Amino acid sequence: MQVPASAPNPIAPDALLVEVAWEVCNQVGGIYTVIRSKVPATVQVWDERYCLLGPYFPHQAQGEFEPIDEYELEQLRRDDPFAGAVRQMRAQGYEVQYGHWLVTGKPRVVLISPFQVYDRLGSIKTDLWEHHGIPTPDHDDLLHQVEAFGLLAKIFLQILTTETVPPQRVIGHFHEWMTGVAIPALRREQVPVHLVFTTHATLLGRYLAMNDPNFYDHLMQVNWAAEAVHFNIETAVRIERAAAHGSHVFTTVSELTVRECIYLLDRIPDAVLPNGLNIERFVALHEFQNLHQQYKAKIHEFVMAHFFQSYSFDLDQTLYLFTSGRYEYHNKGFDLTLEALARLNYRIQQSGMEGQVVMFFITKRPFHSINPQVLQSRAILDEVQETCEAIERQVGERLFYAAAAGSDHRLPDLSSMVDDYWKLRFRRTLQSWKTTNLPPVITHNLVDDANDDILNFLRRANLVNNQHDRVKIVYHPDFVSPTSPLFAMEYGQFVRGCHLGIFPSYYEPWGYTPLECVARGVPAITSDLSGFGDYVMQTVPDHEDKGIYVVKRQEKTFDESAEELTDMLWNFVQLNRRERIMQRNNVESSAELYDWKKLRVYYDRAYALALERE
């Protein structure tokens, strides 16, 4: 797959585009990032012919949805078919929200609450069963929401086609199984909408990969129907299959997920739509090196509080590595990362190299509270800092007076300029802070500490932050945020402060985390079993020079992949400061390769293909 040199819009000027997603103004998972980041590039080409459609959940939407008032809607109605369809739906008694999504590009958005047709769930379920063989259990509210929204999405698109005047045509682009319910009904009722369906990861594929360490080897033998029942996801899987087969154009996000679609959904995708980012949001130009220093200093503060109460090391000789994402121990490659870190720790110890590596695991796990020892250590270090600053002010004032008033040109005894109160407080604060305990590997008290895979590996490998360990571990089972008393920074700021992101996933249909690193000028490791890694290998020559490393996991044993990852980390820790700065420059300058303005052309080709098909 070659990256197009430019991205002209091949779509007929009379086409309208409605993009349907469960995560429009509703942040749940990764699709939110895809849709939101793509909006500016889409609006740039489609402008007023573009509208997003999603479910209305007031609590989720309130911070990012701006409604259009009734008077303005009436004015828009004459030359805005989306507004006309909204007014028609309202006239039929439906509650429909119409306005703008408060993101870059401010696209038009239609939001419809699924709960308003819950009284019709019986007939909705009956239709799905009788016409499409899709059964629905009685007590699954997500399925009820999905199926109710599917009916409302179908009605909206039906009405929209009556608002258009030939040669105007309507393209409906549906993302993931949660919006797919409308597709088979639209085809059955022959509504003149050109349908595109994108699966970002097959639902069954995600479940199988989590539970089968040889998922890719067994893919061809999977009995999809039996496995869907086994994992209790039969309804969702059947909806996904009906959407895939009912669409005019079926797409997925990477060459890797093409195989899944063939064997689990029984349809070969018509196109692959790689995901990008709105790179403008991340651009810092010449500032990005300064930002790295600024946020690295904040990470230094955390590391000092966490480790220096037990022992200290040279922060200028310390590298910060991290991984992040959903807690899927095998799928996200946490198991491979830990194995490589244990091997790296041994290699550095044996080599006699100077320096330390601090590895952060940022994920989400159920926890009771932050570890009181970790919190107390941070609080006491803050007190140490306040005491030092008070002494600094006092010495500064007295030194200045002594310099101005004295005739002796020698530097006076600075300790004599500190009051006994501050000397005592300094000594007592340090005494209360220092401990002989090892720094904890985890910052929080987990609900199920004994059965946590990360912790159990660290215990088995004795990678528990001993002073002689050259790889230190910080497992933070909560997302980084400005309200966190430990980091007090945004996730993006934390990423900028680190030296390397590690994401050697076993199952990752696309993978935004390494892409977000690259956008911030931070080198990243991905794998050839992630959509992003596969895309990089196919389209980016000399990608390692641009700071993107791809671990080979296809047709490799766990041990072989672990050794390759260890080699990558070993080579990285041997870079000197100048080489790391040059590499960050290369990473930052290559980020535009993944901008939606370049990658949107794949979507436009899929839309052109949909318009050709009836």
From TrEMBL:
Claim: Transferase is one of the keywords in the record: yes
Record InterPro entries: Glycogen_synth
Pfam families listed in its UniProt record: Glycogen_syn
GO cellular component: cytoplasm
GO biological process: glycogen biosynthetic process
Entry keywords, A to Z: Glycosyltransferase, Transferase
Domain of life: Bacteria
Protein name: Glycogen(Starch) synthase
Lineage: Bacteria, Pseudomonadati, Bacteroidota, Cytophagia, Cytophagales
